[in-house]
Amino acid sequence: MTVDKAINRPARNGLALGILSALIVVLVVGATIATDRIYVVWSLWTVAGLVCSIVGYRRARRWEEQGFIPVGVRRAIAGIILCSVALLAQGTETGLALATGGIQPIGRAPTTDNGSSAAGSSSHGSSGSPTTAPVVAVLQGDGTSVYSQAQAQTAIGAAYAATLKAAPTGVVCPATEPIQVSVTFPCTVTITGGTSTVAQVTVVDAQGHVEVQVH
């Protein structure tokens, strides 16, 4: 078989792995958007695709220098681009996940079989172990629950620390809020270093259990 009719297998394989790596990135980004959580992801296929593409590119150029058709050079270049972009995206995703401990909803009450929120407990974090849903109200003598700023700030801080494995340096919630299902209010959470974020707190039952979404 002559070189001009040869198949540049490394270039072909590199492009295929580059396309696969791009699909992985799309799936991970989609999962991040759908679950509001950043994932640690690292694909060896992407590294293998980059290596194959580089080998294929060098092989094609060597054939060109020898006066033959540079079979697979375009595939190799496309593979290098796809794999490089995929590696950058995966590295960024992983770096953010490791830096933040995973961006995800915290203090969310679990759903029942029919999809409604249950106020008793919530499962979060990498271990998936259940934790008590935050409570922002104090039980009164007549059996009703009344919003408490101090209770809210303590509960939000504890939920944040349990989920992201880092206790905030400060939490500021509104002075007064009604304890009614679906009422939403913001709390400002400050972490080490002075960085502040807003936690959207939503009341899920009359006892003051809440769902907390950190942005």
> SSE string, helix = H, strand = E?
HHHEEEEHEEEE
Rg estimate, integer Å: 26 Å
Order of strands across the biggest sheet? 5-6-7-8
Low-confidence stretches: 102-131
Total of DSSP H or I helical runs spanning 4+ residues: 4
* Gap from first CA to last CA: 60 Å
Shape: rod-shaped
Structural class: alpha+beta
What is the count of structural domains? 2
Could you estimate the helical fraction of the residues in percent? 40-55%
Protein name: DUF4333 domain-containing protein
Domain DUF4333: 138-208
Biased composition (Low complexity): 115-129
Transmembrane segments: 15-33, 39-57
Secondary structure topology:
Layout: H1 9-35, H2 44-65, H3 73-100, E1 121-123, E2 130-132, E3 137-139, E4 145-147, H4 149-164, E5 170-172, E6 184-190, E7 196-203, E8 210-214
Antiparallel strand pairs: 1-2, 3-4, 5-6, 6-7, 7-8
Helix pairs in contact: 1-2, 1-3, 2-3
Biased composition (Low complexity): 115-129
Protein name: DUF4333 domain-containing protein
Region (Disordered): 109-134
Verbal overview:
This is DUF4333 domain-containing protein. Residues 109-134 are annotated as: Disordered. Keywords: Membrane, Transmembrane, Transmembrane helix. InterPro entries: DUF4333. This protein has helices at residues 9-35, 44-65, 73-100, 149-164, and strands at residues 121-123, 130-132, 137-139, 145-147, 170-172, 184-190, 196-203, 210-214. It is of the alpha+beta class. The chain has two domains: 3-100; 121-214, no CATH class. The longest helix has 28 residues, at 73-100. Mean pLDDT is 79; it is low at 102-131.
